[in-house]
Amino acid sequence: MNFDAAQLGILLPALIAGLLVTATHVPLGMQVLARGIVFIDLAVAQTAGLGVIVADSIGFEPQGAAVQVAALASALVAALTMTWTEKRWPEAQEAIIGVVFVLAACGAIVLLAGNPHGGEHLSELLVGQILWASMAWLPWVGIAYAVILALWFGVGEKLGRVGFYSVFAVAVTISVQLVGLYLVFATLIIPALATRTLRRARLSAAYAIGALGYIGGLLISVWADLPPGALIPWTMAVFALALGPLISHCAMRPDRLSTG
Description:
single chain; mainly alpha; 78% helix; ABC transporter involved in vitamin B12 uptake, BtuC
């Protein structure tokens, strides 16, 4: 598999973007799985996307600060609303998350109905454009993710419900515009789900699955000329299944593993 300089120039920013998303979303995904609110990322990401579409329909520049503020504000409103509903109606939280997702998705479709490029915009929101990740934008993403990771690993559970949902909303808002909603969901859930039986080295194993999924998916997408946003979740799932026996073996013999 040979790549020319132009292809490598496209692959490198995309790979960095994928690894940055993996770095933040793997630990957050473990918490999402532990809380039993698996679809919250879809709801928050879709709401952030709705904010982008609203700002765009008003006439703001697609990459401007106003759009980013609109996306973040929408995601935070959704996240904080679900913070309240989790406390008020914990038994119905998953259903509420589903309703928020459906309403945000339908709102986006309605707003894009009269846009001649609506289908394209919706596809970008869902599948993303990871191959067009900007190297100039990635350092700022890295700084934001570093702050998120510092908060998460430094404070962790002490963030509380509101703190967790707020950090989660910020991370998902950035990521959904970088790689798309499907990749955000896959990165949050697949590594966490594949390593759920591990008590030690779980984080390392989950990071490996996420990173291999992005590396393999990007390489295959360029080689086979397939959309990476749709392919990477599949490669991530394949690596999760392929490493399943090893993960199961390690789960039964935790004494041989170092803490991850």
